[in-house]
Design brief:
- This protein is of the alpha+beta class.
- Strands 1-2 form a two-stranded antiparallel sheet.
- It is rod-shaped and about 75 Å long.
- About 10% of the residues are buried.
């Protein structure tokens, strides 16, 4: 069995481990992206997600009476 350890501080992590979007495992202290200087681009990921999820709304033209 491979021992799991934090990618940033090399502390052993047991059951309580956190997976980041940068494909690494972190302890509870280093789990936030600001704490381990994450290289994943959250901003562009959010933009791409909005492009795929949002639907453009186009109003129907009004008919004149």
């Amino acid at each position: 069995m491979i021992k799991q350890q934090c990618f940033f501080c090399k502390k052993k992590v047991g059951i309580l481990r956190f997976y980041c979007k940068c494909n690494n495992i972190y302890c509870s202290k280093c789990r936030h992206p600001e704490d381990h200087s994450c290289n994943f681009d959250y901003k562009n990921n959010g933009r791409e997600l909005l492009k795929t999820e949002l639907v453009k709304v186009v109003p129907k033209k009004f008919e004149e009476l």
